[in-house]
Design goal:
- The complex is a heterodimer of chains A (about 500) and B (about 220).
- Chain A has about 500 residues and is mostly helical.
- Chain A has a domain of about 160 residues: Four Helix Bundle (Hemerythrin (Met), subunit A) (Up-down Bundle), CATH 1.20.120.
- Chain A is built from 14 helices and no strands.
- Chain A is globular, with a radius of gyration of 22 Å.
- The C terminus of chain A is likely disordered.
- By secondary structure, chain B is mostly helical.
- Chain B is built from 7 helices and 2 strands.
- In chain B, strands 1-2 form a two-stranded antiparallel ribbon.
- In chain B, helix 2 packs across helix 6 and helix 4 crosses helix 6.
- In chain B, about 40% of the residues are buried.
- About 5% of the residues of chain B have low confidence.
- At the A-B interface, helix 1, helix 2, helix 5, helix 6 and helix 7 of A face helix 1 of B.
Chain lengths: ~500, ~220
């Protein structure tokens, strides 16, 4: 095996990266397009679900549009349609680049994506007709929807692992650990979640074993893999500590997987199960802080670079949200906090901090970085990037803080026995309006982003010279005093 | 790390370990539920909980199909950490309260009140029917969706016994509200939600203690 290492010339490395990019180009752009279609659908359904909570007579004549069906369709389209599809694309791209070889078995990845999306489409149609498994995050039917999705994920995993098997590097970079393991974890938890137990309180335990790990061992891990690649890449500076990376990875693998039962605190499960999850949740402080310190120490002194790169801005905010949402999760698993926040809209805000301001921000960041490099042209409009950024940032800020505050008010009203139940509804209602406003901002941002992506696809390859940020190899920039002149939209 | 095999083995080990603790062990430790929800339970045989009738089971399906569980929990938490019992939602829930439930509908939100004992609290079927048709006709502050598609509004021809007793002003004069089979099944399910008997787990525990005392 002829491996490339640090002694390889920069020109050689650049050529290898370009070959890796070229090999996965169509697949990655394909997953982005599919993902964006699901993003728009899921966002609009989320808006409808949000409006329905303060306008309960809205769209009640058709069973397909009732709140209890629109809500799961919103969740499933965004988790399995938007996030997962984009994650398939960036996983293969990252893997090819990191092991310095063209992506392998791309037709397998295409086949998998096709099967996955057909299964998802069938499942979503079923949900509109009320055909559901009745478990949160696992609503899609385990027969005609989840089974094809498992097969599809296996085809994509085969391509990712085959690429890893053909590696031209000796040392496996931290992002590779996260990516290779994610494609093992996801099918495992998805199969356990669907088929391990469908009855009694065991079913609730299996439900939350899956639902928490879907975030922890799939969406979180692929996102962390992307951060670990892009942060040092854009800054031209290595990750602060290899040992913290190791601690973060194995700590997450060990503790996160045991977290699920904190969704059932006080519930009718054996207390040892719930206690196990509370302990594991608190232990999450170790991997979370390892990763946070590692990222922060890589970034420190380079914050001014945020001005020049929307990718970096989204990635850094996403990484901060990861720390924030994880510490919030630790706090929520402690009984004294849980007794206020459990069963309230706080949890919905918490979930959106995880899936939106962490995961989706990372996906936006990666798409801003990857797309122009695959297409060899720059994003057409800096203004559209700014609009997208500010709309979703203000939107998610309002969303998360609105529901956090409203959720605490709701929880305090629920815990005050002398207050009638109606007061808990009255306490949260204004914040449900705030959430709808936030949802509209996010929707506008998504339309702008999708439109901008369409413009990028349609535009012709660059004729004039691209900005230095466009280069495949990182640019070491001295930001201590000197300013960098940039023209147009730099990524 | 340089070895793919070790990486994959280690990753697999962590998640299998977690599944063993949180999925496999409870399968052995928790009361076994019958495969067919209309058959009596194997364990614990002491539970006075009755299996669902065919109509109640259909009602439960309607409950799941329309996602009622996203806003209504079905569990009364331990009084040590919550005021659920003081709110009048019933005694704390035990695993045997769910032996016929597939899927379990413990819930994660209380946008609306807990329903595990709604059959005790609100035993009137016509209240439920009107409430499903238009929640705000009975509970002005409610944000629950209305479910008009579970009903038919008939001009006339509906006999008195067929029609739902409605409050004045709910429908224009001369119109009558008739519940579909699904609406009636859903109400039958809601009325079956009663966990007002002493939990069999405590009885089993007490008998074990008594047996121990006799040995001495």
């Amino acid at each position: 095996m002829t491996t490339l290492d640090t002694s390889s010339s920069p020109m050689e490395l650049r050529k290898v990266a370009a070959q890796a990019d070229e090999s996965v180009k169509q697949f990655v752009l394909g997953t982005f397009i599919i993902g964006l279609i699901w993003l728009i659908i899921g966002t609009l359904l989320g808006d409808i679900a949000s409006f329905k909570l303060h306008w309960p007579n809205l769209l009640t004549s058709s069973p397909a549009m009732t709140f209890g069906r629109v809500r799961p369709v919103h969740l499933n389209t965004l988790i399995y349609g938007w996030a997962s599809n984009v994650m398939f694309g960036i996983s293969l791209w990252l893997m090819a680049r990191l092991v310095r070889t063209p992506g392998r078995w791309i037709p397998s990845a295409w086949t998998g994506t096709l099967i996955w999306n057909l299964g998802l489409l069938a499942g979503v149609m079923g949900l509109f007709f009320g055909d559901t498994d009745g478990m949160e995050w696992l609503e899609l039917r385990r027969t005609y929807a989840d089974l094809p999705m498992i097969v599809g994920a296996a085809f994509i995993a085969a391509s990712v692992w085959r690429t890893l098997g053909a590696r031209q590097v000796h040392h496996l970079y931290v992002s590779v650990w996260y990516l290779a393991a994610s494609f093992l974890w996801f099918p495992f938890i998805f199969i356990v979640g669907n088929y391990a137990s469908q009855r009694g309180v065991e079913n609730a335990a299996v439900n939350w074993f899956y639902a928490h790990n879907a975030l922890g061992l799939w969406m979180t891990t692929v996102s962390l893999g992307a951060i670990y690649y892009l942060l040092p890449k854009i800054l031209g500076r290595p990750i602060y500590s290899y040992w913290l990376s190791l601690l973060g990875f194995w700590g997450l693998a060990f503790f996160y997987s045991l977290n699920g039962m904190h969704h059932l605190i006080g519930g009718p499960l054996p207390s040892w199960m719930i206690t196990t999850s509370i302990v594991a949740s608190v232990m999450m402080v170790i991997p979370v802080l390892s990763v946070a310190v590692n990222h922060h120490m890589t970034m420190v002194g380079r914050f001014s670079a945020l001005r020049y790169s929307p990718t970096l801005t989204f990635i850094v905010l996403g990484a901060m949200s990861y720390t924030g949402v994880s510490l919030q999760g630790v706090m929520q698993s402690v009984v004294e906090v849980n007794r206020v926040t459990h069963f309230t809209h706080w949890t919905v805000g918490h979930a959106h901090m995880g899936v939106y301001s962490f995961l989706t921000f990372i996906l936006f960041g990666v798409m801003y970085y990857v797309s122009p490099r695959l297409l060899n042209r720059e994003w057409p409009s800096a203004a559209l990037i700014r609009w997208h950024f500010w709309l979703v940032l203000v939107g998610v800020f309002l969303y998360v803080f609105g529901l956090a505050y409203g959720g605490v008010m709701q929880g305090l009203a629920l815990n005050a026995t002398e207050k009638p139940f109606s007061e808990s509804v009255a306490a949260v209602l204004p914040w449900l309006w705030v959430r709808s406003l936030a949802a509209l901002l996010l929707t506008a941002g998504h339309f702008i982003f999708a439109y901008h992506f369409y413009l990028l696809l349609k535009s012709s390859p660059a004729k004039e010279e691209l900005s230095p940020w466009h280069e495949i190899s990182p640019l070491v920039v001295d930001l201590s005093g000197g300013r960098i002149e940039s023209k147009g939209a730099t990524v | 790390m340089t070895r793919v095999f070790l990486l994959m083995l280690g990753s697999l080990a962590t998640v299998v370990f977690a599944a063993f603790i949180l999925v496999a062990v409870p399968r052995v430790a928790l009361p076994e539920a019958p495969a067919n929800p209309t058959l009596p339970p194997v364990e614990p045989a002491e539970s006075p909980l009755q299996p669902y009738t065919a109509e109640q089971w259909r009602g439960r399906e309607v409950y799941v199909e329309n996602g009622c569980f996203y806003c209504h929990s079905q569990q009364v938490r331990d009084p040590i950490i919550s005021n659920d019992v003081d709110r009048g939602w019933g005694r704390p829930s035990y695993p045997s309260d769910y032996i016929y439930d597939s899927p379990a509908l413990l819930g994660t939100q209380r946008t609306g009140p807990d329903l595990i004992n709604v059959g005790v609290r609100l035993p009137d079927p016509s209240w439920h029917l009107v409430h499903l048709y238009q929640p705000r006709a009975l509970v002005p502050w409610s944000i629950m969706p209305a479910y008009p598609y579970l009903f038919e509004v008939k001009e006339d021809g509906a006999t008195a016994e067929e029609a739902v007793k409605t409050p004045a002003n709910l429908l224009p004069a001369g119109q009558k509200l008739v519940a579909t089979a699904d609406a009636k099944a859903l109400v039958a399910y809601l009325l079956s939600l009663k966990r007002d008997f002493p939990p069999p787990e405590l009885k089993v525990e007490r008998e074990k203690l008594r047996a121990k005392g006799q040995k001495k």
